[in-house]
Structures are given as C-alpha cells and as structure tokens.
Write a structure and sequence with these properties.
The structure is a homodimer. By secondary structure, chain A is α/β, with parallel strands linked by helices. Chain A contains 13 helices and eight strands. The mean pLDDT of chain A is 96.
Chain lengths: 301, 301
C-alpha cells in the first residue's frame, strides 16, 4: 500500500522513515527542490507535485505549516483524488479550519482526518502520539498506518472533525506551562548564591522517582549535558506557533481560566522583546531538543 | 544493622517497609499510640520513645512535620546518641533550619543529613527520589540505606547541609506549576462545549509518546479512571505545605522571577477562599493520588 507524504520537514521525514521501517511504500513531495533532492538521495520515492502523489496513494498525509498552504495542497491533491481517498492533516492546523476542510472534502467524496502529532524529533525512534479527529470509517481504514508510526497505545480517535487538532491545541497549551515551570525552577537552582548545584546531576536525579519526573525533564537533563548550565551565550528569545495563543483564546471564549498559559505567553512575548533571561534561554534549548526549533547564539561583546 | 525511624505516617511507614524488604532491621517510634499499635501488629519493632530508638540505632531517620517537632525529637534522640551517630531529616524542613541543626549537632559529635524525599505513596513500591545534603563522611556511611529505599539512580549527595532540603524545596515549587498547567488544560478539555471528550482516554493517550508525558499525567489518568471526569462532588480547595511559599520567598530574595509558581500559589489561596473550580478539584485529587493528601466531598444540595 502506498502512503503519500506531503512535506518532508522534521515531522514529515520522521513519519516517512517510520512508515518505510514498517514496510509501507511511501511516495513523497516537498515544495523545496533541495529537500526533494536530499530525500531522493536517501532512497525515498519522490513525486514532482502534490497532484502526482494523490495519483499513486489513496492515503495522503500532510506535514506542512498551518494556514493557506494546507488549502493549496488540498486543491492540488484533488486533481487526482478519487472517491474515498483519505487526506490526513498531521500539522498544527486551527481546529475550525479542519472542520471546514472536512466538510468541503466530504462533498467531493474525499475523507479528511485531522491528526495532532506529538513526539517531536524523538518520535522517529520512539514512536509518536496521535490525536485523530474525523469520520470513524476513514479512521478505521487508516488505523494500521497510525499504529505503524505511533508509540504503543499512542494513537486514538478522539472525536469528529476538528477534535484531533483541538486536543493537540490543548496539549500544546499545557506544554507551554510545563516548560515555564521547569525553567523557572532551574533558574533559581542555578542563579541562587548559596550552593554550587550541578543542574545536570539534579535534573537527572529528579527523573528517577521524583513526583516531577517527565519526558520534558529528561530532555532538560540532556540540554545540561550538551550545553552545560551556564547558558550565558544562549539567546533567551522563545518563539511560538499558533497553538498556545489559540488555546488561550478558546479558553476565554469557553470561560475556562488558564492563568498559567496566559502567564507563559506573556513571558514568551517579553522574551522576544527583551532577549529574555536564563529561564527563557533554557526553554529555547528544550524546544530545540524536542522539536528542533531554532535558538540564537549571543554575539560575544 | 538497625535503622531507626521516627514518624510512621505515609512516608515513614513506606520507608520502613522498603528497609525491611532490603533486610535491614528497623526500630521505629511514632508519637501516636494508635499508630504504634497498628505498626506493632504489622510486625514492626517499636520503641516506647525517640530516646529508646537512638539507644538501638546508630542511624535514625525522621519523617515528621517541619518545625519544632524536629527539634523536640532531636533533643530526645540526643539522650542516647553517641559519637558519630547520624540523624537524617527526611521531611520537608526549611533549609535554613537544617543548616542550624547540622551545626548544633556537629558540636556534639553527631552528624545530621537533610534528605528531601520525593515519590509519594508510590515510592513504597517504585522507590523514592532522595536529595541529600550534609557532610560527605556521613553521606558515605548512610549511602547503603539510601540505595535500599531509592529508585535506581534515585539518590544523590547534592551539597553541604541544607542543600538537600533546598533542592527539594525547588522541586516542590516546580510541582506546583506543573499541577496547575495540567489541571487548566483538562479543565478546558472537559468544560468546552464543542466535543464530548473522554478525559481518561486522552490523559492515557498523552502518556504514550506525547511531549507532555510524565508521572503526574499518569496519576491524572488514574484520577479519571477512579473518579470519572465530572468531579462536581469534589471540593476544589487545595492545601499546601510550606515549600511552595518558601521557594517563592527565596526566589524573590535571589531576584529570580518565578511567575508560574507565584500564580499557582495565588490560585491555591483563591481556591481555599472560594471553594475553587474544576481545575483545583482536579489538583486536589492528583495530590491525593500521589501524596494521600485529603480532599473534600461537597455536600449534596
């Protein structure tokens, strides 16, 4: 069975690799000629356009940035799409957009699944966590490929169209607060003047049996292992995708207080204005660790 | 080798059980006659006083509430303590108190180790995470018993006197923010009006491969499994020990911003004044899950 992949960035290429490892045939397309060339040299079967992908694959998975790009790709896919084809959006699209897309595609006999995809760069080896929304019938047909790329028990049909991206949106909203909580703790640990703590040693210690053990904490220990704990050369600007802000907007609409997310967004905005501090530099490095997000190196003065 | 345990509450009794399982002899004391009776019936060797414990054990471990109780117990232990005896404080004492106690005891030839103890109720089976401060010589002597009760790689000498409780204080400060971040996310998940999400299913899903997977998330899934997700009968008041407030005070003194901890403490204070909301009820249940902390059941109106 051919699976189409559109977009061979960090997530798309990782999913393609897992599909190949599970003996699926993959046909892929990326808008960048350079990325296509690299992927081709790495042995991936490449198409010359999104339209060509849907000629060869009845299930096509998108890993492209949220917004118009998704609609443009869908338009191209429809050129060759046939009845009962399935388009899966594996990116961080706004859930309302996913609801609209599913409705439009349904009218043309094509299924649309929205699939929140978590796990970051490490998902390639460990498997991803997939939150999937859309028609049960389409989910059932695509389930074997979800199973192939997810961690054990790491995929679920969470509801109708939009539900997958909605759940992923909240997931990301929680992530913002977790990052802040760890970073401000490690900032105090490093910046107080009473003891000479070894942050790597303590991050590692806490991953073994403490109440606050977590995957993000393991990645934090890895940051200290790779970078040391001084971090004075690391830029403290923290970027963000749309999901954190969307979560807060939705929470306000639904009259659900999310003070921690709100504060975390404030800190991120402040960090981009001012260059941030030790805590935000650490967050930038943790985000690089799990998602390959860029961070700045400060110029030596 | 005899190990003394003073205080047979949730932590003390769990540590005693692990020590017995590792073939140590334990002699224990608790101020409550009822607890002593129960422990005796369960086969634990009981003393009639703290003083009697230090007659039989060269290493005595305290699991009692922070404050004067610790000093009172130490006074009783000193009646029979001999040169080179080791007193370990496994509770959540203020680090400055631990520094003072270590100094005072040193003058009497007795060692004092401050041991931040994380892992909660589950530590009994899984092993604890121990953050230990104090003289290297005393640490080296006590290391086999730390090894016996900790999770694999779950104990470390983090610095001189007070360092163990200082690190545990920051650990708890981080925990406050993590709890808030998860709880407000699950509050939106449950209280929005667009989808009928199954919170238990989604908490479980997220523990398999997502970026936000953690021990606290596993306990959250367990809460939904045991309680359902409605929570309307659960009181939203969240109690606190001293450590969260101490962390924030210390952060202010050290000029390290901890906005997430600050906000979390505000929410807890608000919850006790007003009865809280869905998110704080969930936190009360998670705290019960890991630490056995009490929560209220609302009277049916």
């Amino acid at each position: 069975m051919n699976i189409g992949i559109i977009g061979l960035g960090k997530m798309g290429s990782a999913v393609a690799a897992r599909l190949l490892a599970a003996d699926y045939s993959v046909i892929a397309f990326d808008a960048s000629e350079e990325i296509r060339k690299t992927a081709h040299e790495a042995g991936l079967q490449l198409a010359d356009s999104a339209a060509e992908v849907s000629q060869h694959a009845r299930i096509v998975w998108l890993f492209v940035p949220a917004g118009d790009v998704v609609d443009n790709i869908i338009t191209q896919l429809l050129i060759n799409a046939q009845e009962n084809h399935i388009i899966i959006d594996g990116g961080n699209s706004f859930f309302q957009d996913s609801i609209k897309r599913a409705k439009n595609l349904e009218q043309q006999g094509v299924f649309f699944l929205d699939c929140g995809t978590s796990g970051g760069l490490h998902g390639r080896d460990l498997g991803f966590c997939l939150m999937i929304g859309g028609a049960q019938q389409a989910y059932d047909r695509a389930e074997p490929i979800f199973n192939a790329i997810a961690m054990n028990n790491g995929y679920t049909h969470v509801g109708p169209s939009g539900a997958g991206h909605y759940v992923k949106m909240i997931h990301n909203g929680i992530e913002y607060g977790l990052l802040e909580a760890y970073a401000e703790g490690f900032s105090l640990l490093h910046n107080q003047n009473r003891y000479n703590f070894d942050s790597k040693k303590i991050a590692n210690l806490w991953t073994h049996g403490s109440i606050i053990r977590s995957w993000l904490l393991e990645l934090t220990a890895q940051v200290f292992k790779e970078q040391g704990q001084d971090l004075s050369t690391i830029g403290g600007e923290i970027q963000e995708g749309g999901t954190g802000r969307w979560t807060l907007d939705e929470a306000e609409l639904q009259k659900v207080p999310m003070p921690i997310l709100e504060k975390s967004l404030e800190v991120r905005a402040w960090s981009r204005k001012t260059g941030g501090d030790y805590a935000t530099a650490l967050i930038a490095l943790i985000r690089h660790q799990f998602g390959g997000h860029n961070y700045k190196i400060k110029k030596q003065s």
